Amino acid sequence: MTLTPRSGTPVIIASFCVALLLAILPLPDWAQMLRPQWYTLVLIYWTMALPQRVGVGVGWLLGIVVDVLSGTLLGQHALSLGLIAYITFEMHLRIRLFPLWQQSLTILVLLLLEKLLSLWVMGAVGQPTPPLSYWAPPLVGMLLWPWVYIVLRDLRRKFQVS
Amino acid sequence: MIIDHRQHHLESVRSVLSTITYPLQFVANLPIAIGYWASETFATRTRLQEENRELHRENLLLQGRQQKLAALEAENMRLRDLLDSSFKLGDRVLIAELIAVDMDPYRQLVLLNKGSNSGIYKGQPVLHANAVMGQVVHVNRFTSSVLMITDASHALPIQVNRNGLRTVAIGTGHINELELPNLPNNADIKVGDLLVTSGLGGRFPSGYPVATVTTITREPGEPFARIRAQPSAHLERAREALLVWTLTPPDQDAAAETDAAPETSGQAAVQTPAGEP
């Protein structure tokens, strides 16, 4: 395992870029509330598929970029994405074996955790508590997970990312 | 890390990273930009002519009003000279366009397409068609993010245009609502009053319209009235913004400097409520 050649880094970076792009693409107001956490989904997938390459460090870096893009407190997303990457890393062998619907439920928990951490940070710096629709994106993310998973898996196989 | 950021030590890191992520924002903005470009390029001749005529008429009207304004300004200057009071005069403005990018949905932040390469600085006031829009919070190389006056963490020193009553307008987190929490029940304020910037706090130039009062609820048991106001700028529809530099006339620089000491103490007193939420 230690000697496996590393290939397909551009594919991983490109997938993260697309996810970030989807995260800042302007949407109408009603859809904005439902925007799933694309970058988290992609991060979870890569951590699960290639735990030896994508992990806490990448999660943290991605989080910093998200913070800069969305104008939140520097470190808010970095903290939560780092933790998500860690948990996924710990559980990747188990999650891989789950059927897709069961994976989706696990993903829901992870996405909710990310939102919860963000909420804590926002509470700690005295921003007002967001409305109930704050919790909608994880549900959308859960429904999207099978598609994200299949698309990224096919990408990984096609470009032989390992 | 978070604490470090609260003390604003990481501003330079953020600005470097923003420069790196600028391509992403640029790409995200592309569809909208192409849409506007296409609608401008393929506009019909008659529509353009109509628009041109309309702008011409508006320009005439504004110029007419400007003539009167120049006379008034001169008169005001003379009167102030008589009173020996110094004040800041003249603003330099720069027009920036909003980049169509969604940021944190629970804060009122927008991105402008001008950054430190255009001389923009942190805390600079941003106007929209002569109504206050917000202030710059992060400056990057090519972009800058603006915090709207309706963000829940924003407070703006204002006064009622009718009688000069001073207070602070605090954002509610809703894009079309401001709150005036510090006015007592018997304060002289009415529905429809125009609120303008007071210039206290030293950040915004004074005299720009901010909002009009929409509702006032006076509860006899409560010490303060609950007052809501609607911003004059169409914050949710704005596509362009004016960045303002306040200029001090050279002959009044000296006067401003001698007045600096009492001014700063006054500013500190005013800024405490402004920084509170």
Structural overview:
The complex is a heterodimer of chains A (about 160) and B (about 280). Chain A is mostly helical and about 160 residues long. Chain A has one domain (about 35-160). Helices cover about 75% and strands about 0% of the residues of chain A. Chain A has helices at about 10-25, 30, 40-50, 55-70, 75-95, 100-125, 135-160. In chain A, helix 3 packs across helix 5 (about 75-95). The longest helix of chain A is centred in the C-terminal third of the chain and has 25 residues, at about 100-125. Chain A starts with 8 loop residues before the first helix and ends with a helix. Helices cover about 35% and strands about 25% of the residues of chain B. Chain B has a domain at about 90-275: Rod shape-determining protein MreC, domain 1 (Thrombin, subunit H). Chain B contains five helices and twelve strands. In chain B, the strands form two sheets. A six-stranded antiparallel beta barrel of chain B has the order 1-2-5-4-3-12. In chain B, about 25% of the residues are buried. Chain B has about 280 residues and is of the alpha+beta class. Classes of the chains: A mainly alpha (about 160), B alpha+beta (about 280). The interface of A and B includes residues 32 and 75 of A.
What layout of secondary structure does this protein have?
The complex is a heterodimer of chains A (162) and B (277).
Chain A: H1 9-24, H2 29-32, H3 38-49, H4 56-70, H5 76-97, H6 100-124, H7 136-159
Helix pairs in contact in A: 1-3, 3-5, 3-7, 4-5, 5-6, 6-7
Chain B: H1 2-6, H2 11-41, H3 45-83, E1 91-99, E2 109-112, E3 125-128, E4 131-139, E5 144-148, E6 155-160, E7 166-171, E8 178-180, E9 194-197, E10 209-217, E11 226-231, E12 240-246, H4 253-258, H5 260-275
Antiparallel strand pairs in B: 1-2, 1-12, 2-5, 3-4, 3-12, 4-5, 6-7, 6-9, 7-8, 8-11, 9-10, 10-11
